[in-house]
């Protein structure tokens, strides 16, 4: 039996999946079991969590991570959302400052997981639910560059979720409309994967995880 810990926010939590068994962490363990690997999933994720929330959660006592053979980390989307919403209500701080703070917190998160001697750490990039909004394309592009840089610095694998979703957003995102950020501001769009989206994520993560842990 191996332990798989999924760290994240509402996506990892399974928000908008039709049931918890459809969310990607459960699907990953199911795929592993079909290959003869008994796996227990542990999900540490909540809706609306930012990198600050996740860092605080594991910084208090990271010892629980020591039981894991595999950890996936998916965080950062809410950092961007909160920045965007706050910018509508008050003079915006430079986005570079937000990105710098995000990178520091992600380094802390991955460093703590590494400190607990987890053998396999996989960091997920962010897909773009608004591919037809230039500012979203640019911001998520920068965020993903930071995610990849942090993963590289901390000797982690990278799961390119952004590439898995690119061009298929209309099939994989719950309530997808026109792919414009304005839709979300009007309350007409969602940012979470639907069941098919979770399936794509799970398949991609499985293809990364299985070669690392399969019996030799």
In short:
By secondary structure, the protein is α/β, with parallel strands linked by helices. Helices cover 52% and strands 12% of the residues.
Tell me what the structure shows.
- The chain is of the alpha/beta class and 216 residues long.
- The protein has one domain: Rossmann fold, CATH 3.40.50.
- Helix content is 52%, strand content 12%.
- It has ten helices and five strands, in the order E-H-H-E-H-E-H-H-E-H-E-H-H-H-H.
- It has helices at 10-13, 24-34, 51-60, 77-89, 95-115, 134-153, 161-165, 169-172, 181-185, 195-213, and strands at 2-8, 39-45, 70-74, 120-124, 157-159.
- The chain has a five-stranded parallel sheet with strand order 2-1-3-4-5, sandwiched between helices.
- Strand 4, helix 6 (134-153) and strand 5 form a beta-alpha-beta unit.
- Helix 2 (24-34) packs across helix 10 (195-213) and helix 5 runs parallel beside helix 6.
- The longest helix is centred in the middle third of the chain and has 21 residues, at 95-115.
- The mean pLDDT is 94.
CATH-assigned fold name = Rossmann fold
- Protein structure class: alpha/beta
Q: Mind telling me the C-alpha Rg?
A: 17 Å
User: Total domains, how many?
Assistant: 1
- Taken in chain order, the helices and strands follow as EHHEHEHHEHEHHHH
Strand order of the largest sheet: 2-1-3-4-5
The CATH class assignment is: Alpha Beta
Uncertain spans: none
Averaged pLDDT, please?
94
Tell me the distance between the termini: 16 Å
Q: What is the 3D form?
A: globular
CATH-defined architecture: 3-Layer(aba) Sandwich
Question: Key features?
Answer:
alpha/beta, 12% strand, Rossmann fold, 216 residues, globular, five-stranded parallel beta sheet, 52% helix
């Amino acid at each position: 039996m191996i332990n798989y810990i999924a760290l994240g926010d509402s996506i990892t939590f399974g928000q908008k999946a039709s049931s918890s068994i459809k969310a990607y962490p459960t699907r990953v363990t199911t795929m592993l079991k079909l290959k003869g690997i008994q796996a227990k999933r542990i999900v540490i994720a909540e809706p609306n969590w930012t990198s600050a929330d996740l860092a605080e959660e594991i910084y208090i006592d990271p010892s629980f991570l020591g039981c894991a053979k595999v950890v996936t980390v998916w965080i950062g989307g809410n950092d961007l959302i909160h920045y965007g919403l706050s910018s509508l209500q008050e003079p915006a701080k430079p986005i570079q400052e937000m990105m710098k703070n995000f990178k520091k917190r992600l380094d802390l998160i991955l460093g703590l997981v590494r400190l607990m001697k987890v053998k396999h750490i996989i960091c997920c990039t962010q897909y773009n639910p608004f591919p037809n909004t230039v500012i979203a394309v640019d911001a998520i592009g920068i965020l993903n560059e930071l995610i990849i840089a942090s993963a590289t610095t901390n000797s982690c694998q990278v799961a390119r979720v952004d590439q898995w979703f690119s061009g298929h957003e209309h099939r994989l995102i719950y309530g997808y409309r026109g792919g414009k950020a304005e839709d979300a501001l009007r309350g007409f769009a969602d940012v979470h994967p639907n069941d098919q989206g979770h399936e794509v994520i799970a398949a991609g993560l499985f293809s990364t995880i299985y070669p690392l842990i399969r019996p030799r």
